[in-house]
Amino acid sequence: NAGVTQTPKFQVLKTGQSMTLQCAQDMNHNSMYWYRQDPGMGLRLIYYSASEGTTDKGEVPNGYNVSRLNKREFSLRLESAAPSQTSVYFCASSEADRRLAYLQETQYFGPGTRLLVL
Amino acid sequence: AQSVAQPEDQVNVAEGNPLTVKCTYSVSGNPYLFWYVQYPNRGLQFLLKYITGDNLVKGSYGFEAEFNKSQTSFHLKKPSALVSDSALYFCAVRGYNAGNNRKLIWGLGTSLAVNP
Asked: Quick one: closest CA in A to B95, which residue?
C-alpha cells in the first residue's frame, strides 16, 4: 500500500494564481484532513472531511476550499494565492468507524507539499 | 481549555544516553494521547498512543511514553538514544471543536538532536 500520497511535492506560485493540491489514500479510511505547518506554529488544521460527501472548516480555512471527490481523494484549492499561504501542506487520513474506536484519531500523513507564493 | 504544551523547543542528548521529550496536556474527560515523529522533509509518522490501560505505552523504534494523570503529562522516553532518532517530535491530544466533533490538538513540536 502506498498509504497517503500528495502531489505536487513542490510548487512556486505568483500572488493571485490558483492551484489545487491533490491527496489520495488507499487505506479505505473514512476521514481525511488538510494541515499546514509553519515554523513556530506547529500543525494547523485547514479543513477536514469526516466521511465521503462531508467537509468542515478547521482552524484556518480562509483562502482555501476543499473537495472530497470520493472516499480516496481529498483536494485542497487555493483560488488566489497570497504570500501568507507559503507553507508546507500535509494531508492525513484516519479511520473513524465507531466500531473500531481504538483506531480513531490515529492519523496517517502524506509526505507534504512545499508551497512558495511570491 | 484544551491545549498541549511541549515545554522544550529543543532537546540535545548524547548517543547511548536515555532521552525524554516532555508533554503536558489540558483536556476534559479521559485523554487520548499521541506521539508523532517527523524526520527532515517527511510527513509525520505515528509513534504511539495512550487510550486506556497500562500507563506505560510502548511504540515504534523502541520509544515508550508514560501517562501520568495527576501531572497531566505524557512524556516520551527511550532508554538509549540513536543518532537516527534526531527528528521533530509532536505530542497531540484528542479534543473537540466548536461543533463537538473530535479533533487532534497538537503541540508545537520538540526538536531532538542526538549527538554522536
From this structure: A105
| Nine-digit cell string for A88 | 508546507
- Phi, psi (deg, nearest 5) at residue A102: -70, -15
pLDDT, tens digit, 9 for 90 and up, residues B24-56:
999 888 888 999 999 988 889 999 999 888 899
* pLDDT reading at A18 higher than 90: yes
Task: Tell which of A106, A108, A114 to mutate to test the B interface (max B CBs under 10 Å).
Answer: A106
Pairing of strands B56-58, B64-68: antiparallel
Residue B7 CA to residue B109 CA, distance in Å, equals: 9
**Distance of residue B80 Cα from the nearest chain A Cα, in angstroms:** 26
Q: Which residues of A touch B57 (CB under 8 A)?
A: none
Alpha-carbon distance values, A22 to A61, B58, B82 (Å): 17, 34, 35
Q: What is the pLDDT of residues A83-116, one digit of tens each?
A: 999 999 999 998 865 554 444 568 899 999 999 9
Distance CA A31, CA A66 (A): 13
Share of chain B above pLDDT 70, in %: 96
Nearest CB partner across the interface for A40, out of B49, B99, B108: B108
CA B93-B97-B103 angle, to 5 degrees, is: 40
For residue B24, list its beta bridge partners: B5, B73
